[in-house]
Amino acid sequence: MTTELATTTLNESDLLRLGQLAIDAGAEIMRVYEGEFDVQIKGDQSPLTKADLASHAVIAEGLVQDFGHISVVSEEDADSHDAPEGKRGSFFLVDPLDGTKEFINRRPDFTVNIALIENQRPTYGIIYAPVRKALYIGDVAAGLAYRIEAENLARLTLADFTPLKVRSAPPSLAAVCSLSHNSPETEAYLDLYGVTERVAIGSSLKFCLVAEGQADLYPRLGPTMEWDTAAGDAILTAAGGKVLSRDGTPLIYAKPRFFNPEFFAQGDVAFKVPN
Ligand SMILES: Nc1ncnc2c1ncn2[C@@H]1O[C@H](COP(=O)(O)O)[C@@H](OP(=O)(O)O)[C@H]1O
Ligand SMILES: [Mg+2]
């Protein structure tokens, strides 16, 4: 039996603060996007730019300032990647720039991602897409997900946001898939549902499109890291969707090396086990 640790409740002003932090990180990313930048290749062969690091710096500083009692795991802080099995309580899980390949190729669908993980599940998620100026917030316990186009939340409350719900499954389902990392296995899985409409898009925005009822399925049969999925998982789950493992149970977090297995994100659709 696993012991459930005490959970953290974030109130409206906490969520707006986290939203503003993601927007501020996005502004740093845009400063780099609009100029010239070099691309480095990290040890895991993934690309890195000064935008990833600038976004990380803004978020890390803001989280320490306002939520200093909660530890932070960020893709761009290798020291924070140790011993996830020790992280059974609450921690922030951050991808400062998801969709780095989109960013490098000057395609607009990159995002800033902040999630709170508790007892191995994401309970709150924030995603900001700086080019679109689209901010998404998900509160899983409240079952509430929101979206707004904004660059400054100072005069706003969550009542100003648009509430998000997954759509009722239409007769012909639509899927979102990765622009940079699609696979034949993904296509075979979508065939199980007879999916005809596919939208290829980079980054965690795929979860947001399902959460806001523009698509029904986002199966990911290739590898991802937990920071790629945590905020999107919270937003989609809060909007009434699910992010499932192959056995049909919710995807869990704080796994060894923060490495995700394949997962199946879906709106109002019955889960089908892959072949
Ligand atoms: N071989 C691999 N192992 C682990 N994660 C991978 C991977 N190939 C791609 N990814 C993850 O997929 C993310 C991009 O997903 P998408 O194709 O949906 O935009 C990347 O996020 P970053 O861009 O933050 O590095 C990266 O973490
Ligand atoms: Mg990522």
Q: Any idea of the CATH topology of the largest domain? A: Fructose-1,6-Bisphosphatase, Chain A, domain 1
- Termini, distance in Å? 31 Å
Q: Strand content of the residues, in percent? A: 25-35%
Number of domains: 2
Mean pLDDT: 94
Which architecture of the largest domain does the CATH hierarchy give at level 2? 2-Layer Sandwich
Count of alpha/pi helices = 6
The percentage helix is 25-40%
Cα Rg: 17 Å
Number of strands: 16
**Parts with pLDDT < 50 across at least 5 consecutive residues:** none
Binding site for Mg(2+) 2: 95, 98, 228
Catalytic activity: adenosine 3',5'-bisphosphate + H2O = AMP + phosphate
Binding site for substrate: 75, 97-100, 228
Subcellular location: Cell inner membrane
Description:
The structure is a single chain. This protein is an alpha+beta fold and 275 residues long. The protein folds into two domains: 12-163, Fructose-1,6-Bisphosphatase, Chain A, domain 1; 174-266, D-Maltodextrin-Binding Protein, domain 2 (3-Layer(aba) Sandwich), CATH 3.40.190.80. It is 27% helix and 26% strand. Strands 3-4-5-6-7-8-9 form a seven-stranded mixed beta sheet, sandwiched between helices. Strands 12-16-14 form a three-stranded antiparallel beta sheet, sandwiched between helices. The protein has a two-stranded antiparallel ribbon with strand order 1-2. Helix 4 links the parallel strand 10 (174-177) and strand 11 (197-200). Helix 5 packs parallel to helix 6 (226-238). It is globular and about 45 Å long. The two termini are 31 Å apart. The relative contact order is 0.15. The structure holds adenosine-3'-5'-diphosphate (A3P) and magnesium ion. Adenosine-3'-5'-diphosphate is lined by residues 46, 95, 98-101, 178, 180-181, 202-203, 223-225, 228.
